[in-house]
Amino acid sequence: YPYSYMKPDEGFASIALGLGKYVVEGEKTYRFSPVHPQLEMYTPKELFKNSQVHFYAVDLNKKDLNLLEGEDAGLIKLEIDQAEKHGTLKHCASVYDFNSERTIPGITDAGPRVLNFANILKYNYIPLAKTIEVILDIISESMGTPIETEFAIDLNKDREGRATFYLLQIKPLIKNIIETEINIDKIDNEKLLLYSENGMGNGRITDISDVIFVDLDRFDKLKTEKVRDEIDQLNSLMVQEDRKYILVGPGRWGTRDRFIGIPVNWSQISNARIIVEMSMEDFPLDASLGSHFFHNVISMNVGYFSVKHDDLIDYINWEKLKNTQVVNESKYLKHVRFNKPLEIIMDGKKRHSLIYFQD
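Now predict its structure.
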């Protein structure tokens, strides 16, 4: 998400300590703009709450691997304090000071560690941000399309003081070429089902009548795995009926951390054409844009909207949703169907999106 004076086409990066599995699984990574690496997207308190607390590593103590365990067969999940004992946290972490509510670069002070890679991004221990910026610019220009890369960094410097940057993978981000502009002054509020100023996607969709949403009156943030199981069942029914739908729920869809969202796999929401993430008073939204999970969203031209409950402009018409014909209902979810298809409009340049219903 662009923040402050960032621009959407500048891109951004998600990084973490340890193996890239942590980033790919959509866990609590550190996000920054390669063009503006010193610009903080989080307050120190938010950073403390959302900082990486564990990491994945290759377990060299395992002698006999059970390959039936899949890609995790040779891996181990460790707490961040282990990385500090190994000496690999030195340039990646800062200390959160509860008294002053600020972060202190480095790990020489006592206190909880937060991974904000300050020595790298703010004090340029290695030119990581500039490297990413240049690579994105060169490759996207060469391929003629926005791209996503995966990379790894070895902070151990050689005799000439150079660390190693490994470019692992390049993916083109497929985009909808239909341009659609939304003028907020011309929005028909009487027919508005949803409006978001933080969206992904571009174009118009006029063939969806179904909405599956988490019933906020029943939602329990400790039961997100139950919600996942229920959406899996409803999605299977939609696959059988070959019907696309709009999916609405609190927190982050596709996270591995069940306390910040619904921990679904992509296959469990595969027929969702629009995915909406929303915040609640006691359930803040750490938007998913940029996670590996949402590469599937972009590649398949699935719309993604973020709606904040305390925003003056973002909006969901809950009254209309609750008064629409219920097709299926479970403990935590409701599946409603409108008599006429909804009109979904996504302005890719402004990142504004809206959904109209028809009487």
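DSSP finds eight helices and 21 strands in the chain.
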